[in-house]
């Protein structure tokens, strides 16, 4: 089910849009869950990396959007450490057991009539950010959520932004006539960067569950493949995180133990080898199609999710898993 929170006449209501809630399981603390989700994500279509040489990249040329949109707007920077006083805490009455929304997105379009289960018009995404800001939400990182290191300012509600499958509409670069590159303002990263820059008290960041055979490209946009390394470098340098979505976008409901370990382990290794350390979060997985391993057939795999597993001589311990749902995630401080 796909939902958006709306407030009408003082009452919170739910309206269908192309945003998915993700529920996070904090795997180092608890195990087991139901298998209710059916994400219906994109099939894994391989994109061949062109064999042409990669040109030298001028980092100074990478702007968040073309100059007509962002000239003069300072780069978004992470919030300074938020320190609250005792009086502020008493006034805000923080609830460390409160639920936390994780909003999941897939594809974006400039066509306002093209919205479907996986596609969000980019103007509606901008409106989502504005709605969250207007209702006192504060963007935090996925790592802060799963590690229980949430530091949203007093009176703010934590929210995590998450993106599955790493398609080109999430992060697109546009080559300018002078050869420089800018971030497409009609991609998700372009929209976020402009919003973060103009709303510095909103927090910043997002979690990208990457597919290495996409890497922010599409079969219809193969030219974006050449920018894979630059994009993951830029994301890591600017407060974004790249996490696990398996190596082949494999449904994990019913596969062998060996294949389960390969799917998670090879994706983990790819992230370690290709993403700068600051942006690495391979220990958090967005479950393809929303499915955990079948509890009756593959309890050992659920144990691997919770307790760790061996892959090519490396012991891997997952910190969290994301399953599609229609409710926010429980607090990492909650026994639930």
Summarize the structure in short.
The protein has 336 residues and is α/β, with parallel strands linked by helices. It is built from 8 helices and 16 strands.
Write the layout of secondary structure elements.
Elements: E1 4-8, E2 11-15, E3 20-26, H1 67-70, H2 86-92, E4 102-105, E5 107-109, E6 119-121, H3 122-134, E7 137-139, H4 142-146, E8 157-164, E9 173-175, E10 181-183, H5 188-198, E11 207-209, H6 228-237, E12 241-244, H7 257-274, E13 280-286, H8 299-307, E14 309-311, E15 314-316, E16 320-325
Parallel strand pairs: 4-8, 5-6, 7-8, 8-11, 11-12, 12-13, 13-16
Antiparallel strand pairs: 1-2, 3-4, 3-16, 9-10, 14-15
Describe this structure in words.
With 336 residues, the protein is of the alpha/beta class. It has one domain (17-42, 56-75, 97-325): TIM Barrel (Alpha-Beta Barrel). It contains eight helices and 16 strands. The strands form five sheets. A seven-stranded mixed barrel has the order 3-4-8-11-12-13-16. It has a two-stranded antiparallel sheet with strand order 1-2. Helix 7 links the parallel strand 12 and strand 13 (280-286). It is globular. It starts with a strand and ends in an 11-residue tail after the last strand.
Query: End-to-end span in angstroms?
Result: 22 Å
Kindly provide the radius of gyration, computed on alpha-carbon positions and rounded to a whole number of angstroms: 20 Å
Q: Work out the count of structural domains.
A: 1
Spatial order of strands in the largest sheet:
3-4-8-11-12-13-16
Task: Give the fraction of residues assigned to helices.
Answer: 10-25%
The overall strand count is: 16
What is the N-to-C succession of helices and strands?
A: EEEHHEEEHEHEEEHEHEHEHEEE
Could you tell me the mean pLDDT? 81
